[in-house]
């Protein structure tokens, strides 16, 4: 069953989110690919993983400091930001 708030939407939702960066040598690198997660109201979530796995990138997307290259971040069922320009 999906995690939902009282109104029926997850508090935080990442739907098929990918985030790519251009490296200093001009190559495209994918930090997060097709990532999905859902956080319900009152739920405690920890983001854990080895260095470079995309924790800070994920949190930057959830807080709106960065935009996904594809996919969508939703807060209370509303799209947070449109995706980054191609
Ligand atoms: N602005 C950027 N430009 C290019 N590559 C980036 C950029 N930001 C992150 N990356 C790359 O994306 C990947 C994920 O980085 P991120 O900082 O999200 O990892 P992290 O899990 O927070 O690591 P750490 O535990 O070291 O903080 C890494 O390979 C990193 O080098
Ligand atoms: Mg980090």
UniProtKB/TrEMBL annotation:
It holds the Pfam family ABC_tran. Transmembrane segments: none annotated. It comes from Bosea thiooxidans. Belongs to the ABC transporter superfamily. Keywords: Transport. The lineage of its organism: Bacteria, Pseudomonadati, Pseudomonadota, Alphaproteobacteria, Hyphomicrobiales. SUPFAM superfamilies: P-loop containing nucleoside triphosphate hydrolases. GO terms for molecular function: ATP binding; ATP hydrolysis activity. PANTHER family: ALIPHATIC SULFONATES IMPORT ATP-BINDING PROTEIN SSUB, TAURINE IMPORT ATP-BINDING PROTEIN-RELATED. This is ABC transporter. Gene3D superfamilies: P-loop containing nucleotide triphosphate hydrolases. Residues 33-81 form the ABC transporter domain. InterPro entries: ABC_transporter-like_ATP-bd, ABC_transporter_ATP-bind, P-loop_NTPase.
